[in-house]
Amino acid sequence: MSRFLGARVANTLQADPGIERVIGVDTVPPAGPLGRTEFVRVDIRTPSIAKVISSARVDTVVHLNLVTSPSGQRSATKEINVIGTMQLLGACQRSPYTRKLVVRSSAAVYGSSPKDPAVFTEDSHAAVPPSSGYAKDALEVEGYVRGLQRRRSDLTVSVLRFANFLGAGVDSPLTRYLRMPVVPTVLGFDPRLQFLHEDDGVEVLRRMTVEDHPGVFNVAGDGVLLLSQCLRRAGRQQLPLPGPAFGLVGDTGKRTGGLPGFSDELRRWLTYGRVVDTTRLVEELSWRPKYGSEAAFNEFLQAHGMSNSLPLGLFDLVTGSLPGAPGRGGGVR
Predict the structure, then answer these.
(1) Beta strand segments in the chain, E
(2) Predicted TM-score (pTM) of this structure
(3) Which of 66, 61, 70 is nearest to 105 (CA)?
(4) pLDDT score, position 72
């Protein structure tokens, strides 16, 4: 509830007159107004979460507490992601009132490697499975969810593998990376990237909560952008570095506090990229995201005063032909 996604989902659900009660839990109170959402201060890593679910006779649980932007120790993040999920799923299993579970996962479960397919479907497996960080946590979370489904086959379970969120209200390692005045990139690589606008992410979560759509779904905006396109449109100067030096810049910047740190997941994603297929989601919901990857990125640029006045396709064409454009030996502002 203290993060942007949880707060927005709660605000959306509480506006639905068909939902009797909305209960939000977190260890930190949300900063904004709650409306009719009831806030309960509880740590999902403790058995107390079971008391909340059983005493309120909760029938639908929306689990959004997958930490994908860790700011503290790795051990604490893993406890929240994995131990917290185990406690929550145990509470759902024991509660006779729970009938539906919606779980936020991440497209990072597919990993990023040079052996990846061009497009990942929900049935694809990582060519190089994530071995650390929140991506590995997401894999474990999905494993525990499958275990719960075997024990409670009566539950309707929806697992959503989100692409990276982007939009005016998103603050993440990715947005901080894109706002650097000089942006380090991995020499010799220009990854394909997908984004999901925050509004579309909230709408998918709303639909999964009030409707029954069991299964695993990729969630991303239509279309793909190259990293070089993103940086050119943002007016950022590229600094191509060998892979080891790219990681060193992130580590040094994190220690000094002057630059965003680069997690293993972010490093690999900014090297090899990742594209997921969303056909299953579109067919299941009979709905498409309002914002494509390009539109989500454009709103991010406008929100931070980084936009240009030309249509983006024309801007790419013009700046891509200039002598100093990325891909031609340098960057352009």
Answers:
(1) 23-26, 38-41, 60-63, 100-106, 156-162, 164-166, 182-186, 192-193, 195-197, 215-219, 225-226, 237-241
(2) 0.89
(3) 66
(4) 61
